Give the backbone structure.
Amino acid sequence: MYNCKAVSQKLLCCFMILSAQMLKSQELNHLFKPGESDYKCFRIPAIVVTNNGTLLAFAEARKNGCSDTGDIDLVLKRSADGGKTWGAVEVVWNDAENTCGNPAPVVDRNTGKIILLSTWNLGTDHEKDIIALQSKDTRRVFVLKSTDDGKTWSAARDITKDTKKDDWTWYATGPVNGIQIQRGKYKGRLVIPCDHIEAASKKYYSHAIYSDDGGETWKPGNSTPQDQVNECTVAELSGGNLMLNMRNYNNTRLRQVSISKDGGHSWSDLKGDPALIEPVCQGSLLSYKQAGKKVLAFSNPANREKRVNMTVRLSFDNGKTWKYSKVLHEGPSAYSNLVVLPNGNLACFYEGGIENPYEGIVFQEIPLSDIKGK
């Protein structure tokens, strides 16, 4: 005979678990979800706000699955009301079955132009083959521009020869927003955080590329003094120096930071930030003003072992301490990009899900009052 009580308890337990999962899923405001516009997977978020206050949310739209290789297009969604409503998926760059990825947008506040840096490779070339110099082609760098608030875009222009050195194999722009320097000797310069791998040594480094003419021409800065870092994010500090914050492979599971005093051309020795733990993943650093004070904001999956626990932290002392934080999602989460909304609140655009981080890309507004101090 069936044990009705045991069966009922099991059914109740399953129902409670399913209900909890559904509730959590409903709490995640997925802006991009698998299956939309016939794409199997969306990854690699990047977001900026234009001079007109329009939000432009970029992503890699992966046609056949979540693999980093294959038919990948660059897409965006636009919001004219601070992220309350969004338009449909728009394709920014589609090169047949090849890989168009690593969106790194920046807004030239002087002209209103939106400049989008990106990388490209043949859809049949894999990262390991590009690094081993066994691929049919290589990793290339491109730039696209919009002069109408992100409604239309120029054709992608190849700037590889200006931004990638001959002894570099793998290369990535961002993926995260770039910045425009606001003060000092290099005021107006556009800076994009990047990374690369050396052909001979196979070592990973971070660097930046920059433009002093509104994105028409680009130059590469020096590599970081030490290796074992790659995907990075950059912000301007209160004194006009730049901070590079990097994904780290040296087993400390701490974000690495470096300072530039020359507008992103050269960088100081790397230092681990003991407050910024990571599971080896991309992150986002953003500087802005709050009540007249310079603030640094940082987001990443704050866990040493797994891509979980998407957290936003604030620093009011140029990254020396991070006394304010908020966990956005305790569950699976990965890449992210922070932005300041027209209403002054922060928002985080991040990969997140219930079973894995790649169930979609979430847009979440964060009232400043929600970020609590220790």
